[in-house]
Design a protein that fits this description.
139 residues, mainly alpha
């Protein structure tokens, strides 16, 4: 596969990357705070996700970044199981390794058999948890 890449294409990619970074920064900060690890952890997480998505991703255009369900899951893990930042990092690396293993084994194809009502309920529950995490500090 031959890619036609010119200086004009590079310029567009640079501006696209800057735009994505500007839009993604507040989201990364918010999700870092939501996990309980702080805003800096959100920035580091967004950088790591972008890097690994670019290195291991299978498409020319990458869309990746922190998401609500992962932030809620990490918040629960940090709250219950991790007493230090290094323990939280180890848990995150282990979860990533498990995801890579599941990807290599192509287990993701079974998600297509998950009923829509289950996925909708899961996403609604995550939304309620995020709302509660934001409202409780005001009370």
């Amino acid at each position: 596969m031959k890619l036609d890449y010119s200086l004009q294409t590079l310029r567009g990619d640079i501006f696209g990357g800057i735009t994505t970074a500007v839009v993604g920064l507040p989201v990364a900060l918010a999700f870092g705070v939501a996990t309980g690890l702080g805003a800096v952890a959100g920035i580091y997480g967004a950088i790591a996700v972008g890097f690994f998505a670019a290195v291991f991703g299978g498409t020319r255009g990458q869309i990746s970044g922190p998401t609500g369900p992962m932030s809620v899951a990490m918040a629960v893990i940090v709250t219950i199981h991790a007493e230090t930042l290094s323990e939280a990092f180890t848990i995150a690396i282990m979860a990533g390794a498990i995801q890579v293993l599941l990807g290599v084994l192509r287990i993701g194809r079974f998600v297509a058999y998950t009923p829509y009502s289950v996925i909708s309920g899961f996403m609604s529950g995550i939304g309620i948890i995020i709302i509660m995490m934001q409202v409780l500090p005001f009370i």
